[in-house]
Specification:
The complex is a heterodimer of chains A (about 210) and B (about 260). In chain A, about 55% of the residues lie in helices and about 10% in strands. With about 210 residues, chain A is mostly helical. In chain B, a hairpin with a 2-residue loop joins strand 1 and strand 2. Classes of the chains: A mainly alpha (about 210), B mainly alpha (about 260).
Chain lengths: ~210, ~260
């Protein structure tokens, strides 16, 4: 692969030759891995420093982009994964003859949003926020693998607390929860709040 | 409709009762909520007044009293909790507005999550695993598991799991009389010939049984029915309990009659 020479890795000859050696190995791992591979995991498997793996991944990423390959290296679910580009969606799906779209209902998406931002959270807290019983929706999300319950609260009743899973990150194309959009971006502006207040209480006041 | 109640030394409208409980003037644990409900039902039935306002107000007050009672049972003080009765109308509106805004925010976020899911679903992950030629090199995850172990795992999976059932015994111990405990103690002593106190109370289900067993032994020793002997049992000094060597049939029967009379 010529790309390393063209890129100019900004490191010494020894380091560059190490990256040259490790890069195809990283690519081989990514080709066979059935799920996203983390830098730490690849570093352990290849017995090289994590920085070398980071450099190799970065080089591969640039190479795939610049050579307009049908796939790219996605940072997803806490690791790296080779994925086809969105441009080829229809062609690829024609071949695999199935839809990857895992449609969730509006209710399920709302509960998922609450769990994503308020985790760990209990069912009763979800219900309190939504103002409607969400037990069935929580069960559905567990079945689909988007959320899981692995711990209990310390409070009375020791309710199960729910968290999002790695599958959640993969399906949303996120590397980590830190990549979730900021919640304050969705807070309505003052005008919208005023309108809501007026709509809510004007009847009562009049 | 004003519903007046008489509870302990309190006599007045139920709203005032709630107010007194909220301010700590009245101890909520001393109030029987069931009696209040029964009283209210009687009033409703006798007066034929079942206007929605009155009923809903009563339910609202009762729910607050129940809330206070639960908090008392859980060991929380009133200061730990927001006193809903103290929330003014303006604050009430604010609380409602904030709750609605919270729902609206998460609703909007859910659209964004849907958008991201759809966007990600347009790219397909390569997750086919190693080439077929390499499959033979992949170590068998079950290589260290014997068929017997697999069988036991399967049996464990399909076996019926006995779960603890939460029933009334968890909140109320099964009632047992002094006579029953006394008879059991004597039966065990007769059957075992010599027994330590620990062995004697091994099957006791409550502190009551232990205390009664102890008193029966003391009484038996005082009456000359039982003998107590210090001995070394499993390297520990223990008191062995046995029937008295000089025990006559009549003395034994008198003692068992005494136990029967304890009922």
């Amino acid at each position: 692969m010529q790309v390393q020479e063209e890129q100019g890795l900004g490191c010494g000859n020894t380091a560059r030759s190490l990256v040259d050696k490790v890069l195809p190995q990283v690519e081989a791992l990514l080709v066979v891995a059935p799920e996203p591979l983390s830098i730490v995991e690849m570093s352990r498997l290849l017995e090289v420093d994590a920085n070398v793996v980071v450099e190799s991944v970065s080089t591969l990423k640039t190479f795939y982009d610049e050579t307009h390959r049908a796939f790219y290296l996605a940072e997803i679910g806490g690791g790296h994964q080779i994925r086809t580009r969105a441009t080829f969606e229809s062609v690829v799906k024609r071949y695999i003859n199935s839809s990857y779209k895992d449609r969730l209902s509006k209710a399920a998406l709302e509960v998922l949003a609450i769990v994503a931002y308020r985790q760990p959270i209990s069912r009763s807290e979800i219900t309190q926020i939504r103002g409607i019983n969400s037990d069935a929706t929580v069960r559905l999300l567990i079945e689909k693998g988007y959320i899981e319950a692995k711990e209990r609260s310390d409070g009375p009743g020791q309710a199960w607390l729910y968290r999002t899973t790695r599958l959640f990150l993969e399906r949303l194309g996120l590397f980590s929860l830190a990549d979730l959009p900021r919640l304050d971006e969705f807070v309505p502006d003052a005008k919208a709040v005023e309108d809501l207040e007026e709509a809510l209480f004007s009847d009562r006041e009049s | 409709m004003v519903f007046n109640v008489k509870v302990n030394e309190f006599d007045g409208p139920i709203d005032l009762l709630l107010s007194n409980v909220a301010s700590g003037k009245l101890e909520v644990n001393s109030i029987s909520l069931v009696s209040l409900v029964m009283e209210f039902i009687e009033v409703i039935e006798s007066s034929g007044n079942s206007k929605l306002d009155g009923l809903s107000r009563f339910i609202s007050v009762m729910s607050m009293l129940l809330h206070y009672k639960c908090r008392g049972i859980l060991g929380k003080t009133f200061e730990d909790d927001i006193d809903l009765e103290e929330i003014s109308s303006a604050e009430e509106r604010e609380v409602l507005l904030i709750a609605l805004l919270g729902v609206a925010v998460f609703k909007d976020v859910s659209f964004e999550l849907q958008r991201r899911i759809e966007q990600t679903s347009m790219t397909i992950a390569r997750e086919v695993g190693p080439d077929l030629d390499l499959v033979s090199d992949v170590s068998d995850p079950l290589r260290k598991v014997s068929p017997q172990e697999l069988r036991s795992v399967f049996e464990r999976m399909v076996s019926k799991v006995e779960r603890d059932v939460v029933d009334a015994t968890h909140i109320t111990t099964t009632q047992i009389s002094v006579r029953e405990v006394g008879e059991r103690v004597m039966e065990r002593i007769v059957a075992s010939k010599r027994v330590t106190f620990s062995e004697l109370i091994r099957f006791a289900k409550s502190r009551f049984e232990i205390v009664v067993s102890f008193l029966i032994i003391l009484e038996g020793a005082r009456a000359g029915v039982l003998e107590l002997e210090m001995a070394e049992v499993e390297e520990n000094d223990s008191v062995l309990i046995r029937l008295s060597t000089a025990l006559s049939d009549s003395l034994y029967e008198n003692f068992t009659d005494l136990i029967r009379a304890l009922d």
